[in-house]
Amino acid sequence: MIRAIVFFYLVSGLYGQSVQVYQFPSEFQTQEFSPDMITAGPGDWLFYLDNKARRLAARSPAGNFLFAGGFGNDYDAFFDPVGLTVSNLDLLVCDRSEKRLLRYDYKLNYTGSISLDPYQDGSGVYIDNISTDPWGYYYLYSADDHLIRRGNASGIDRLPFLDLNQQTIDEICLESMVIVPNGDIGLLFSCTGEVVIFNRLGRIKSKLMVAIPAPLKLQYVENKWVVVNAQGQGQILDHLETSEFSIPIRADEQLLDCTVNNRDLICLTNLRMLVLQFE
User: Fold this and answer.
1) All domains in the chain, ordered by first residue
2) In whole angstroms, what is the distance from residue 88 CA to residue 5 CA?
3) β strands within 4-51, DSSP E
4) pTM of the model
5) Cβ atoms within 10 Å of 14's Cβ, excluding its own
6) Could you tell me which SUPFAM superfamilies the record lists for this protein (predicted)?
7) What is the dihedral of CA 264, 273, 41, 91, to 10 degrees?
8) Nearest Cα to Cα of residue 4 among 272, 246, 277, 279
């Protein structure tokens, strides 16, 4: 997988970070695969999604690559993917236009789909963001009504899990949603520069202010909330102390997505992957 690596070391008030730069593997070029999304599974599995080609890729712990999908009308095809996430042993792709979650195993074999129609009337839900918790539930956010809905393998709940219109939030501009191992739900509101933390019952626990401009991605690394923006500026959020860092994003590349694998924050750009290691 590794074609070129560049190391450098940054020191912050809370952590040291080193960055490894990974060029895309040759398999991506051979398959004409350009990933837009990335997510990590247990055991060092990594999964990628190419939105334009409508294809999936998986990298096994042994470093082998698998590919699936493409254009067509097959039952396992997706058309407007807005989310890629792992739930237990399932890889989930949220297809907004088809109003369903597609399920795959780690070797990208299609195993079924889940309807995103809580009212069973064909209306469906227009989804903008998805995340999953450790208990097999998925959470869907829609900017149309600012509701977060919850569901599992049996389908989506009829009643919303969380109505952001009823929360003490100045302006609803949800950019990123992350659920951590204890069930806490972190929501990044980019326009107000804050991260709001809810517990697994949907009650507000805390709010964290973001100092960097235009935060884009929220993640949870080493028991700390972390935000980054498109320019590669990052911030570790803490109730007692905050610490800023930087990721070497060049002027000719664009930050697309981020995921966490153990103690590493993996940032995907249109040209390469940048792995920030927290020490």
Assistant:
1) 31-166 (2.120.10.30)
2) 31
3) 7-11, 16-23, 37-40, 46-50
4) 0.89
5) 16
6) NHL repeat
7) 150
8) 272
